[in-house]
Amino acid sequence: MDLDAFDELLTPRGQRALAEAVELVGTDPVAAATRLRRTYDAALTSAALTQAGLRERARAKFGEDAGRMYFTPHGLEQSTRTEVAEHRARHLAEPRPDAPPPADAPPADVPPHRPDAPPHGQGAPPHELGLTDAPLQGLRVVDACCGIGGDFLALARAGCAVTAVDTDPLTVAVARANADALGLGDRVTVSVGDAAEVRPEEYDVLFADPARRTSRGRTFDPMAYSPPWPVVLDLLSRASRACVKVAPGIPYEFIPEGAEAEWVSYKGEVKEAALWTGQEGAGRRATLLPGGHTLSATGAEATVGPAGRYVYEPDGAAIRAHLVGEVSEIVNGRLLDPMIAYITGDDPIDTPWAARYEIEDILPFSGKRLRAALRERQVGNVTIKKRGSAVDIERLRSDLRLNGEKSATIILTRILDKPSVIICDTSPPA
Q1: Backbone φ and ψ of 41, nearest 5°
Q2: Dihedrals φ, ψ of 244, to 5°?
Q3: pTM (2 decimals)?
Q4: 60: buried, middle or exposed (CB in 10 Å: 19+, 13-18, 0-12)?
């Protein structure tokens, strides 16, 4: 989909084509294209079907909003899940001891709602769009690499006046259409621009989500981000407050001194990390969504000791934030191995910060011995977890050749540097 095709998609004719394409999602793609081609040209047919498919995929991130929004494949992949973006907006609303009151009104360069906005986004009641509660009313935010707008939508709904830029004209058009479609066009202005030319000192908050893909695919090297890390650091140095979205695996040496690094997990899966500057506090923090639980570094250090009745698997956000010691303290536990993030304990403590499994046996790792132990327990279904093990899980699952009525969780790991397997929770299947 190019810019011309997307622009046509926003016309009344394009909206009709898109509505018809949405009705065809899930049907045979050739039949769907043939049906649309009876009324629309090839370019509009392709754009409508592509957009309809992206909307369907986007529901996992954007919920009901996805049905009104627009996407590009890359923009959807990198965009922030709504719950995470809303969490960041709430974090910005937390008071700072030295914070001046936010500006009373949006900046003069934020235009009024455009009359050419797509019709389906106009006239939506504010209470349906989350605009009735605006804790960040008047806060001026610059989004230096906005993508399709997943982050600035949450900021605008919270009351921010957002100026957003992106280098790609199609992405800018999509982001602008999203602001209009969700009734936020009067709070957001989007234009083509280079993040390096943004002047964060002219705003209350800088937000940046550098692209983490190159022509060779996803990159984990901040120097290969777009804009590259030196540009990001320059922006941070000139911003009074800032939030930069980064990959969860960002090397610690890239975290600026004095910044707070936060790792966010959504329903048990680590989604991203964010670096905050100008906020109260610094150090490391983990957040669990949708529950909103937060754990900060206290300096707790986990001891190493013998296996107890239970093994605890810390959430990935806590592991990334190097908070295993803090989780160990919560469950009154100890590490099985000083280098592996599995915690053992004697008490059945419930915590959102770790999954708990009851230990039935611990064996030195041997495929043959493990198969015999599981067959003896009549285990026919296994959940296999591993950390600190080089074993190929799928090959092991095939080699076990299990046949039984019970289920078990097995954990492949090292215990005091010895390859081991922990057998947990053998029970009839649910």
Answers
A1: -75, 170
A2: -120, 125
A3: 0.85
A4: exposed
Q: Cβ atoms within 10 A of the Cβ of 221, count?
A: 14
Residue whose structure tokens are 């605890």: 312
Which is more confidently placed, 58 or 429?
58
pLDDT surpasses 80 at 336: yes
Rg for the chain, CA atoms, rounded? 25
Distance separating alpha carbons of residues 328 and 406, to the nearest angstrom:
30
Contact of 369 with 363, CB cutoff 8 Å: yes
Q: CB-based contacts of 293: which residues, under 8 Å, 6+ apart?
A: 287, 352, 353
By three-state DSSP, how is residue 309 classified? Answer: coil
User: DSSP class of residue 192?
Assistant: E
Q: How many CB atoms lie within 10 A of CB 377?
A: 17
Tokens of 96: 């700072």
Q: Where do we find the tokens 């695996």?
A: 249
Which of 127-131, 294-298, 412-416 bottoms out in mean pLDDT, i.e. has the lowest? 127-131
Sign of the dihedral defined by the CA atoms of residues 25, 181, 148, 86, in that order: negative
pLDDT at 333 over 50: yes
CA gap 113, 138 in Å, rounded: 16
Residue recorded with tokens 């700072």? 96
Give the integer Cα–Cα distance in Å for 290 and 284.
Answer: 20
